[in-house]
User: Which sequence fits this backbone?
């Protein structure tokens, strides 16, 4: 009886070539990455870009993937790696954005998508729907009138003789607003109104405060003369060779990459 070998390649049939790839597939239980055929068989990506995308998708999060870092690991030069990254970005497999840190340094943030289109849609759907902002309450608007009423209502905390009725607060608020509009902080207004109070009883606190607000009103601040406009720096550009940020009026390559190109 003839022994059968199901895993052995079948003999070529008439009219079909015996060449071509044959697969020996074994399962992976660890140290593997799932790659879709849309990437592995992409008709518009170069083999360098496909291989680079597979490598990036296999890396742990936060692994540096700058052009110089990749060029130090693989035989491809910086120019080919930069071109492959641009391919992946153009087809949605990579997204690169510039972010400025608190220190002022500009860094590149890279996001890898293992399934372009679907990944971005899922992320957008996962974002909570924005809620309309609640209308501000009158006391939280921060207008000069609201700050003026707060100043007047708080005077009783300095001296109980300065207790005002609600009607007197609203009547005196425009006078306090004049102080605030002239650049006097609310605490300075309260300090001026409560400084050197008489020892005798204050029979009419509203009239007493109205007199002080009118007599001690400071002059308005003189606006400083405008100085020359500072020169604006050149905009940030992304180097086409090393992906670093540099300032230049036009896109292109940074000084180091231009020097390397000239030497070559």
Assistant:
């Amino acid at each position: 009886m003839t022994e059968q070998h199901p895993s052995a390649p079948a003999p070529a049939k008439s009219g079909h070539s015996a060449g071509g790839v044959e697969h020996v597939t074994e399962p992976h239980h660890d140290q593997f990455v799932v790659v879709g055929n849309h990437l592995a068989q992409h008709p518009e990506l170069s083999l360098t870009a496909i291989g680079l995308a597979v490598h990036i998708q296999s890396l742990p999060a936060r692994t540096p993937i700058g052009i110089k870092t990749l060029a130090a690991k693989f035989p491809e030069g910086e120019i080919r790696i930069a071109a492959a990254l641009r391919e992946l970005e153009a087809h949605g497999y990579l997204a690169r954005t510039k972010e400025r840190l608190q220190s002022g340094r500009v860094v590149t943030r890279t996001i890898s998508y293992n399934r372009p289109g679907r990944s971005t849609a899922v992320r957008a759907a996962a974002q909570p729907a924005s809620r309309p902002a609640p209308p501000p309450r009158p006391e939280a608007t921060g207008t000069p009138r609201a700050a003026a009423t707060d100043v007047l209502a708080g005077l009783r905390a300095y001296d109980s003789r300065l207790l005002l009725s609600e009607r007197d607060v609203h009547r005196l608020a425009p006078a306090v607003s004049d102080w605030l509009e002239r650049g006097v902080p609310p605490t300075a207004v309260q300090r001026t109104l409560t400084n050197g109070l008489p020892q005798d009883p204050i029979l009419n606190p509203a009239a007493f405060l109205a007199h002080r607000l009118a007599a001690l009103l400071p002059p308005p601040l003189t606006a400083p003369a405008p100085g020359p406009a500072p020169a604006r720096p050149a905009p940030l550009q992304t180097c086409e060779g090393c992906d670093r940020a540099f300032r230049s009026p036009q896109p292109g390559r940074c000084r180091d990459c231009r020097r390397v190109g000239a030497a070559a």
About this structure: The longest helix spans residues 166-181. The chain has ten helices and four strands. The domain at 37-117 is CATH 1.10.10 (Arc Repressor Mutant, subunit A). Confidence is low (pLDDT under 50) at residues 1-5, 120-134, 136-141.
